[in-house]
Amino acid sequence: GRFDKRITEGKEQRLLCSEYHTPPKCFPTIDFRLLEPFTVIRHPISRLISEFNYLKTFEKPKKNYHFKYTDINQFVEENLQAGNYKYDCHLIPQVDFVVDRYGNECETFLRFENLNHDVDWFLQRHNLKRTNYKNVKKLKSLPHKNENDLTEKSKQKILEFYKKDLELWKR
């Protein structure tokens, strides 16, 4: 994995992933009581498929990185395990991102599957205006995997590994 060094309260803290992919509980300066946190959550199966498709864009060696998997089921079998910080922490359960170091929970969830509606609701709630982003990068068009490419065994493994995420998503 990749390490990002930070100085925290006079002590060096080693992050296993980039700062924006590290759970808030790793940062003593993040206290949800002082913020109004929100997060985007996604159904575990579509999240994992999306991650696999994204990582496939690194199929050809690039900057010392090469994604070796072509079979999504093999990827599921070999990578869904506790403590797996590979892929810049993209496989960490989403529930790890909704609690700060002090046990305070994020209570505002925007669902990826309903993102435009949920963002509009959030912006209206806070009297904010939508900003249009013109320079959003599009991923290369590659053959993408979808839920039909997953075996029942893989689907069950995903749902079991991300059981708490699914409960959060159903709230």
Could you state the order of secondary-structure elements as H and E? EEEHHEHHH
Quaternary organisation of the protein chains: single chain
* Global structural class: alpha+beta
Characterize the main sheet. 2 strands, antiparallel
Instruction: Give the averaged pLDDT, no decimals.
Output: 84
Distance between the termini: 33 Å
Number of strands: 4
Given as residue ranges, the uncertain stretches (5+ residues, pLDDT < 50) are 1-12
- How much helicity do the residues have? 25-40%
What's the arrangement of strands in the largest beta sheet? 1-2
Q: In DSSP terms, counting alpha (H) and pi (I) runs of 4 or more, how many helices?
A: 5
Taken from the alpha-carbon principal axes, the silhouette is globular
Strand content: 5-15%
**Spatial extent as radius of gyration:** 18 Å
